[in-house]
Amino acid sequence: MRLLITGGNGQLGRAFAALASMPDCQVLPLNSQELDVTDPRQLEDRFTKFPPDAVVHAGAYTAVDQAELEIDKAFRVNVVGTGNVAAACLKFCSKMVYISTDYVFDGSQNKPYTEFDRPNPLNVYGRTKLEGELLAARICPRLFVVRTSWLYGDGRNFVRTILKLAQEQASLSIVNDQTGTPTYAMDLARGILSLIAGAGYGTYHMSNSGQCTWYEFAAAILRLAGANVTIKPVSTAESSRPAVRPRYSTLRNYMQELTGGDCFRPWEAALADYIKQIKPGNASY
Question: Would residue 283 count as lying in a domain?
């Protein structure tokens, strides 16, 4: 299988690169400098040189707060760029995996969201990702939409930020009124590979199981890392972020449950494995 990854320098892209030694699988991760998805000619050239059996479109504008100021840029990358990738996949008969987000939901319900719940994004980033889903579905029939949440892996993420701050500060203030599910990029990459192997096209939620607040997530990180730092729970209002976040965005991997079983492990177990890989004092924090 020939697998092309957009956003190759991101956390999910790096997870796929780490799986590149898989037998019978060629993985080509491309970052935004190597492939500008808003340029159809670049896509045509890349697909011609490396005709992929499947494309994981992980490249995106992901700066949630900045998107409120750079609306046109966010729509250009997340909607127009996604449409270009979908058109290239259609032309080259490639399967497409579009990585979407829990932020397509407004957080108004108190139970995990399934693939059959109605999206209603609260911020620009969520709107662009939802519009990307809809546009890709209109263009590419061999499409998997994969929604995930609170991703961490190799690269800048909440886990590394908390560990870095724990080295610099005696106390931390963490939001405690937003609930979701941390998801380990390696677990997500493996789940996507199993999805690509089949032809059950459609929308799938793929997150580790369970749920927590950002405060509870931070507490687990510090405990597993053995960091002695005081953390204080604060409200979203106190954090003063430009973009509105859903207060509840836990995803239920319902389509996986219906079509063969949800293989994603609890978020605590995935986090413990990740923390073990990070050496104390790592400058990449």
Answer: no
